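Journal club prep — side note

Before the paper discussion, L.F. wants everyone to see what a predicted structure for a comparable chain looks like in C-alpha cell form. Sequence:
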Amino acid sequence: MKKQQGFTLIELMIVVAVIGVLSAIAIPQYQKYVAKSEGAAALATLTGLKTNAEAFTVENGKFPTEAVKADVGTPSAALGTITFPTTAAADGSGAITFSYTAGKVSPLNTGGQIVLSRSASGEWTCTGKAKDTSVGPKGCTITAL
C-alpha cells in the first residue's frame, strides 16, 4: 500500500477556483472602501477650514476668496486641491471646494469633488460629485459625474 504524497490536480484546481471567486468579490468592495475613506479625508480637511472661513467671514463681513486663502490657513492636500471663490459675495455666502487629483485617488473619485457651501444665514451644507454616489462621506449629498 502506498501513502498519498500530495494533492491531486483536481484538488488544486478547486482551491484556485475558490480563491478566484473570493477575489472577484473582495477587490470591488476594497475599492469602494478606499474611495469612501478618501471622501471622509476630504470632508475632514474642509470641516477644519469651515471654522477658519466662518471666523474670517465674521471679522471681514465677506467670505474668503482664492486671493486670501492663505490667511484662512488652507493646508496642502495630498489627494487634491482646495479652492475658494474668486470673488466674494456681499451677503457672506460662499463655498470651499475640494477637487480630487487624478492618479492620486481611487478611480471612483477621479474627477469628483466635495463642496462645503455657506448660505447668507450662516448655514453650511455639503454636496459633491463622484462616479459612484455611494462612496460619498456621511452627511453629504453626492451626485453622479
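L.F.'s comment for the group: The chain has a mean pLDDT of 90. Keep this in mind when we get to the figures.
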